[in-house]
# Entry
Amino acid sequence: MLSASWLLDHTSTAHAILSADGTILFANPALSSLSGRPAASLLGLHFQELLSRGSRMFYETQLASILLLRGAIEGVSLDVLSPDGRLCPVFLSAVVAPDPDAKYTVITLYEATQRKHYEDEILRSRRELEQLAEVVRRSSDAIFRLSPDGTIQSWNKGAELIFDRSSQQALGLPLDAIFTEEHQHDLAAAVAKIKRGQEAALEMRALRHDGKTVEVDVVLTPHMEAPGTLVAFSAIVRDSTSGKRTQKALLQNEKLASVGRLASSIAHEINNPLEAVTNLLYILDQMVADPEAKPYVAMAQEELARVSQIVTHTLRFHKQSTNRTSLDLSALTESVFGLYRARLNNQSIRAINDSRRVSPLYCFEGELRQIFINLVANAFDAMRTGGQLTIRNRDITLQSSGQRGVRITVADTGTGMDEEARTHLFEPFFSTKGIGGTGLGLWITQDLVRKNGGAIRIRTSTRPPHRGTIVTLTFPHTAPTTEP
Amino acid sequence: MKAVDRNNVKVLGAGERTLMFAHGYGCDQNMWRHVTPAFQADYKIVLFDYVGSGHSDTSSFDRTKYSTLHGYSHDVLDIIDELDLKRVDFVGHSVSSMIGALAAIEQPERFETLTMIGPSPSYINDGDYVGGYERSDIESLLHTLESNHLGWSAAMAPAIMGNPESPELTQELEASFCRMDPEIAYHFARVTFLSDNRVDLPRLPTRTLILQCQKDVIAGLTVGEYVHQCLPKSQLVVMDATGHCPHMSAPGEVIAELRKFL
# Structure
């Protein structure tokens, strides 16, 4: 009763014997029910005809050739398509059984609907993981994994850029090898924190492979497993240079604003007694008859007029900084020269205002005035033994953007700046003027130029005959209508 | 990396003329093992694996480069260059027929003849053109591929355990036949079955033999006839063999036709 044929008739696994070209020569009842076809109709069909079209293509392009070459294959995933359109996922195993007469292929099919569901789920989560991994791989922040002892175990693209190290150069390095020595103590403390399961945030300098250093923000996050064992930790490192720069700029603006407010309030306070003294001097002028004393009074009046002018300018500077106006650069040049006229004359400095072909610049007038004053003051200080100061204003087309704009050139024939001064000239509190200089002039100037959308460039030489300094400012013309 | 390493190039035999065999999608150079012995005495034989197939260098895979068949045809030209082959008789199976055609269009002087076994310039039906498949069929194939290469079954995952270069490990060697890198296999399938190179066919100047099987469900007779019509210098031979891999199932017939043509 119990025999191989009884087994074949009653097993839930589908079996078939195929000829060399895939024709079904024998099929058990399980194949009939799996494929949704009467047993008799199976014989003579090609096995491929039981499959969905995708599975059939797969069978023809890959399975058939592998079977011919390897002689057997196991666990291939295919879809059987019933005549009523129902798809049944199966796993197929096949073996080529050589017979004296011909080659036969014995196939076995297991129904795999449930397992296909699991598989779809696994593949879906795998794809999600891959997408997430891709986000980490391509992030511009450095994201890497470390073993509990702090050895680098993974390295992404951001890490390559920030630390200038390929993954081959970084993997296996201890964490402290990629930061400057000054932070080693902080780093050790942070790692100790990590081991207690706490996150740690640090500001450090990353040590690049090329020897340079970069300011970075670092966050270390522990990954623990029960019972509270550290299995790994991750580091996210962000280049903070640009963030710090923004912070510095904000601080500068804040400083400038308060300097402006202070100057303005002082000017305002001075203005009242100044008016009183001006009036008193006027009266005194009327009353003095002594020809020797008369010129002194006149000189006092002249000097006081200058004080008055400075006060007025200072007041205007603060007041006008809030709105852009259309500024005549030639008039501004004259006005600044006027402010310095006496000193320029005393020091035998010839001042030239070359303002042909220049359109009005839409800008913060007070700020442009301060820029001019700072640059003229520097030029004046550089020409202790006389020389020539030229301010040239021209309409140009900006090379960088093709926009229309103006170029302002402030050129002196002074001492020029040495290498040391050139390197530090835009740094705050750097001064070549000894006790008299604040070291803020060019620093503030650069800030004001940028605030008005411009650029500043300085060329300088200490060697005759081209000794001197040329400061070139360029500003784009912005239409008044673009202002909010 | 040199192309001969990248594409696991093998050179056999000796002769004035060079026969270059290019495998189709789903297998590797081993698929020619029943054909090459017949030509080894009279021809220099060049075999290779496309990147991602067989024992090619998978690290050379570049998604963008291989996103069209041109990436593969450039590899063919690289091999011809590196081996300093003057003119080759190129035999391509399935997708390699089109890869060979693209290479011959680009550098016709390097190709004496072209033999296409089961070629198709496009598998997807389009208006009057009958490629044999709808886009949904290709999606279904890709789904099956994914399941077999990446999923639970992973039947196509490399089964090789020992050293594939050791001939004594015959069984293990056989188990490694037609292995493909899973991710690349999926990519290669997309390029193979979704590419449309119909416009390229009339530009092929090389003398071409089209070997067409009866009952080839991948590239049917109408596709073979279409290719024949588009190629000015072609001859179409419909063989008695069935299926998509006659050089494996009926190598004798393929050898005979190839000899006649060459």
